[in-house]
Amino acid sequence: MKKSVFLGTLAVAGLSAGIAAASTLDEVKARGELNCGVNTGLVGFAAPDANGNWSGFDVAICKAVAAAVLGDASKVKYVPTTGQTRFTALASGEIDMLSRNSTWTFSRDTDLKLDFVGVNYYDGQGFMVRKDLGVTSAKELDGASVCIQTGTTTELNLADFFKANNMSYQPITIDSNAEGEQQYLAGACDAYTTDASGLAATRAAFADPENHIILPEIISKEPLGPAVRHGDNQWGDIVRWTLNALIAAEEYGVTSANVDELAKGTENPEINRLLGVEGDLGAMTGLDKDWALRAIKAGGNYGEIFAATIGESTPIGLARGLNAQWTQGGLLYTPPFR
Fold first, then answer.
1. For residue 197, what pLDDT band results from cuts at 50, 70 and 90?
2. Model confidence over 267-317: pLDDT tens digits?
3. How confident is the model at residue 178 (pLDDT cuts 50, 70, 90)?
4. Which single residue of 68, 218, 225, 330 could bond 291 by disulfide (Cβ 3.0 to 4.6 Å)?
């Protein structure tokens, strides 16, 4: 009897483990919608328009995953999260994935038990000040008041920077970028600090962006990327390889305009595997052969997404820099599709 009970327990445990491994994918398919955690509003990265339609660099990742999994990039429910609520929303199951300019750190990966699936933007923390403050370096901010979001890596980075330079500061804590923008423009703080890309996006929304400058110092490294719950490996693989597909597509010259034609077959086996012409990569994650094709068509490859949302021709005006392909001197690199 004891043996039977023991074996039965093992069977139930094994069944439960199998269910858990596929639970997020199953839930998303059953729901018919991807719950994606995004910023409360950061122009260029994630922000709704007057009609409630979301767009941006991080939003494009949500759309690509929805296209890969559900066959429709519009099947996304965008859940605004703050620096303090984003990880709780993910851990609790309120969202299926987080695509919200979040830094991949040791403690978040281990202590919070999140899985960062890759880096979609290599960034670093900077400072923005009003031009009439007369400051040209962050090392001139001794005694300054600084607006900073709580629940972010910027808090510790700020403390470390001022301590290392034997300076003091007065933190003005905020909960969201919108509040930070409001406080900064109201003169509640001398400087606003966050990721440099976030500063550029925030400044672009000002009525007078030319009157605000981003100081030259970058005081940290901030590898930003999508995150999923720890332990659901199948779902993590899906989000990871969707991001990889967008990055690899740019490297291989696969775009939203030519992807259908290339899906008829090419002389490049890597492209053929990516687009489902050869092999059966989709089945390895529980998807069909066209998952990557749909992800790329949703908003284009990584380069197309970057150019359309935050690139040099947009009000954000960000150069590719470290976010260029490895073949162009940047850090973007994916494992092979085989």
1. very high
2. 999 999 999 999 999 999 999 999 999 999 999 999 999 999 999 999 999
3. confident
4. 68
Measured distance CA(316)–CA(203) in Å, rounded: 8
Q: Where in the chain is the domain with CATH 3.40.190.10?
A: 24-122+223-328, 125-220
The C-alpha torsion from 25 through 26 and 31 to 36, rounded to 10°, is -20
CA dihedral (285, 323, 115, 272) in degrees, to 10, reads 10
CA distance 287 to 70: 9
pLDDT at 16 over 50: no
Identify the CATH homologous superfamily for domain 24-122+223-328.
Answer: Periplasmic binding protein-like II (3.40.190.10)
What count of other Cβ atoms lies within 10 Å of the Cβ of residue 271? Answer: 21
Please name which of 123, 304, 149, 143 lies closest in space to residue 214, comparing C-alpha atoms. Answer: 123
* Phi, psi angles (nearest 5°) of residue 265: 120, 140
